[in-house]
Give the backbone structure.
Amino acid sequence: MQLKSIKWLALAAVALSALALGGCATPAAPMAPQAAAGTPDYLIGPGDTVSINVWRNPEVSMAVPVRPDGKITTPLVEDLQASGKTSTELARDIEKSLAKFIQQPVVTVIVTGFVGTYGEQIRVIGQAAKPQSLAYRRDMSLMDVLIAVGGVTEFASGNKASIIRNVDGKMVKLPVRLNDLIKDGDISANIPVRPGDVLVIPESFF
């Protein structure tokens, strides 16, 4: 009788252990959500300056400007397209060109002067103190643009200014209030700008 009780207790213990393990089992972890797309890599444009470093080859390492045609020229590398590429892509292209003269070249490219591709530049025309094209910066606002061009002239009709923007392939005209922003400090007039925007500041007619 005692032996049967021991066996019964042993079986009960095994059953309880199985139930406990089943109850504590960790459910399958849900799949991690897909990472949000990051900020696009900077694309080199005409007017940029790129610093090219070729490891252990200082004689071919230098900083060069990107020509208006979008190309660069360095020792041993002639007329290489740079515009529209990331610094990493340009480095790999330079390595391929140098491989004809240097065994297993290792190249690093750093953009030191930023202008950007033409399609991403902010253009300011009309009655700005210094009308010009500006390189777009992340989170750039209308106030940033005005600071870069030195504000507006005394002849500007700031509240009649507008931004020409490409929206889904269609050019739209967005009114902006420069006088309210500059003279009255109305921060609600400080709207974000986008790559390719054209800020048009008309002249005031008295």
In short: The chain has a mean pLDDT of 85.
